[in-house]
Design goal:
Elements: H1 36-46, E1 59-68, E2 86-95, E3 110-118, E4 121-128, H2 141-148, H3 159-167, H4 173-179, E5 194-195, E6 200-203, E7 209-218, H5 227-236, H6 240-250, E8 256-265, H7 266-269, E9 291-300, H8 305-310, E10 323-324, H9 329-346, H10 422-430, H11 433-449, H12 454-467, H13 469-478
Antiparallel strand pairs: 1-2, 1-9, 2-3, 3-4, 5-7, 6-7, 6-10, 7-8, 8-9
Amino acid sequence: MAEKRKGLTTDTGIPVPDNQNSLTVGERGPLLIQDFQLIEKLARQNRERVPERTVHAKGSGAFGTLTITHDISKYTKAKFLQKGKKTDMLARFSTVAGERGAADAERDVRGFALKFYTEEGNHDIVGNNTPVFFVRDPFKFPDFIHTQKRDPKSNMRSPTAMWDFWSLSPESIHQVTILFSDRGLPMSYRHMHGFGSHTYAFINDKDERHWVKFHFRTEQGIKNLTNAEGAELVGRNRESHQEDLFTHIEAKSYPRWKFYVQVMTEEQAKTTPYNPFDLTKVWPHKDFPLIEVGMMELNRNPENYHAEIEQAAFEPSNVVPGISFSPDKMLQSRIFAYADAHRYRIGPNYQYLPVNKPKVDVNNYNLDGPMRMDVPTYNGAYYEPNSMGGPVEQGKYKEPPLRFDNPVMYRYNHREGNDDYSQARALFRLMTPDKKRQLMDNIAEHMKGGHVPEHIVRRQVDVLLKVDPEYGMGVAERMNVKIHSDMHPSTPSH
């Protein structure tokens, strides 16, 4: 006997008698505005999409667990990072520049965003598949993103804008070198590392602070595509990364990443030859080796992409006791910008959406706004301080003070006296001859394909020469640009 089916209703539960035909005046007559079921259906469709993310619009995601296998309690009191703990989580991977309809297999940085539903509230790590970024001062972030989006006149992506900005911003060369290497085009989300990228702080139960960087290293191995392989794949499947992640999880071939940290003391941070809070810099592993922490596994696909991935809100401001921020300028700006983007994109009460809601009680005095999804009980205490028995502050979670040596307010020139070349040089010289060739071929192909003006090419070649003569001359030769006397290498070959 067939199971009795439920009756179709409107969003307010009113029965729908006919879901096939609109209400009209006669068989061939006009529609009636009193057909509220038609109006609701059309209006609802108009609002089925939230505005896409300004960056990282095209993405895929899955749920899983983080299991802590090693003891790092001497660095942090965060409960979910104690040995033996297993925490539910959500991961979202993405490209940066493309819109929601962009192809997955395009050369771009990949977003690597993680949300951990801990017993002390949600903790988010909003990073990338690269340990560094193009800029170190958030004042330049909107300008940089403009270069990655569409030209307002042509409505097309502009390589000229990209290389113009990069050649005028030498701090970008480390990330540019990674982007145009083979790692700039991963085979899939499963075959790339993830990084918190920023410097964060660990705080232990003695109120001691250590600086920390987060690393997630793929257990599937690093695999990348050439430009030709990427173009062929896009021609067959624009959702190649989405399909790969989804089908492997459905087949119970669960992707995993080993979780590591690098740790630096406050005293060590004062003596590094580079700014350890600079997002364009890495911490050398020989000085600050990777410390194994645990394993991340993705083992469940979302049931509804829009509800659980598109509406997922990741924000660096979500930190639990035992983890905190650093003076990283880019991180400081993202603490504000990400939460504000969610308020614009999905509303001021986005935290109440199931995918964003923590698995612990939420007690505060936030009021009202669109889409308030709970029915709060205040018992007279809808302000603070109060004598009505409402929730009170928890002083035991105060962080230890952070002291600064030169507390002078000023717009410091972040490029003056900053070495933007040595880490990119070290990366270039680690590459095999084939990898160097591929890097230089990719840069030249991108410049030629985008018809980048020669004066911008020359300026970029000058930056590359300062990284390594072989790097600059290799791109110059591929672009048929002669190296003039004022474009001489400023660093020795060895």
